[in-house]
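Escalated from tier 1: FE2/S2 (inorganic) cluster holo job.
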Amino acid sequence: MEKNLIPISITVNGRRVELEVQPQHTLLKVLQNQLDLIGSKECCGEGECGACTILANGRAINSCLVLAVEADGWEIVTIEGLAEDERLDPLQEAFLKAGAVQCGYCIPGMVMSAKYLLMKNPHPSEDEVRQGLAGNLCRCAGYNRIIAAVQLAASEKEAA
Amino acid sequence: MPVWEKYILPASLQEALEAAASAPGTARFIAGGTDLLLDLQQGRHPPVHTLIDITALAETTALEIRSDELFIGAAVPLSRIVQSPLVIEHAQALAEASALIGGPQVRNTASLGGNVCHALPAADGAIALLALDASAEIADRRGCRRAPLGELFLGPGRSALDPRAELLTGFYLPLKSSGQASAHRRVMRPQGVAIAILNMAIWLARHDDLIQDIRIAVGPAGPKPLRAVQTEGFLRGKPYRKETIAPGLDVLLAETHFRTSPHRATAEYRRRLAGVLLEDALQAAWQRAGESSEHQTVI
Ligand code: FES
Ligand code: FES
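Tier 2 regenerated the structure:
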């Protein structure tokens, strides 16, 4: 098995890392087990829930659905990469302000999907927020506040 | 036990084809893998030795006009198709269908070629491509050939391509001319991210109040994505009216084979939905065709 290890080099949250990964391991598994980035969650493991959402080369993807070997050369941002020097990203702040976090399990994925949405569309309508978060499930069913949080972040951006 | 041993990312088509031919065990091409990886992990697909990633090939990632056709590479991610002005202009049904597959994250990874090669009878991408009269470009070590899209399907989940020798590089679609348009409609469970209960894509050419030409694809209505050729034949040359569509639906119901699937819908429900989708898709395509034509008639 060891003989099968494949070297990859990825940039994660601004830091370049060289790794040796097994060909069958998902990117999510490698983030969690080899880089100790446990913010992205595995829930369904099959692309339904979005708890594992990260940004890869600027696009939101399910990290449970791609292999670590595929990520060679990619630029990756995980939930851990949003805050700067202990200061939360405005989107994270908005989630707190709107009371959008219940158990919190879905939140890293929600925030990353929302981040992606706001990058493409800084002022989404409610419907566009719902479409943008269509790949994320919240088992606590806190959707209304999550959507409010994204809209709050968008409106604050406007004000700033 | 790992369900695959080796993963490679070839930089050229030739290299990809060589790798498939010389793999010590079975090999599979992969372009996104949102279906294939899960099928492997969950045991629905027998283990393979080598996965050959085709997302770095120039041939499979192009999306462009080539003389009088639109070419869409098999590895182009669905999100790129949804946003492509060329696809929106010439193949609106495909843009609509692609926007319905998975959630935003899945569409950033999943490819049109993967949707087609998975060969599910209600794959939205395949249904739209069928109605748009797409042909597939298939490469082997001797060169490239073209085949009508319908020839890629053997049965549910079974594609006709030889995994050792043949690589689907992309799709050619006719360009839209004036008076022509397409639309894709589907019904799905309200939870969102799932395969369709029923879907339908229609392409048509409109002349005054006549349906001059039409193509209809519908799924799941049999073991493969289905072209409703008898319904097309019935509607072709007829005026676009309620009195035409109602008997058209009878023809459609006679040539489709809806089944009851345990978690999705009963056959009876699908038969009822078929009428709704036929009306909807037809109306959308008809209106769009009117907008793109000089002869506009209102009925
Ligand atoms: S864990 Fe990746 S989508 Fe659910
Ligand atoms: S807050 Fe509990 S799953 Fe969303």
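Confidence is low (pLDDT under 50) at residues 295-299 of chain B.
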